[in-house]
Amino acid sequence: MQTVWLSGTELFAVLRIGLGLWWLESWRHKDKKDWFTGGGITWAGGIAAKHRWPLVRLGFDRVVRPRPRLMAYVVAYAELALGLGLTGGFLTPIALIGGLALNLIYLVLMIHDWAEQGQNLMMALISVVTLLAMGWQSWSLDAALGLFV
What we know:
Layout: H1 8-28, H2 32-36, H3 39-49, H4 54-64, H5 68-88, H6 92-109, H7 114-132, H8 141-145
Helix pairs in contact: 1-5, 1-7, 3-4, 5-6, 6-7
């Protein structure tokens, strides 16, 4: 791939790093005190309770609602881990697949909110493109350590 300034692998590294920074911002902007005392899961529970798909309500009631504190920590620290992993390029394919899964979960939960859909669809698209382009080949700990060659 010929480009003006950066090589193709470097362009995909920029995309990977940008996605990582996006995940870090998602983690940073959470009101941690409210989030970890149930605010985030309560908010998501209200959305799930009114969801148009019964399977989403059922899944939320069986998996998330019985464990609100644990789920709050899982979501918040998954976003942090994704951000750090993608920005530094460490275990990048795993982070990309995990981020794609989290975006799809958010997408399904927030199916009625088009403002949220744009963000989740864009992040999912970047994850797929970066995964298929093997965006860990440049400027990453994976490349430095010889992982996922």
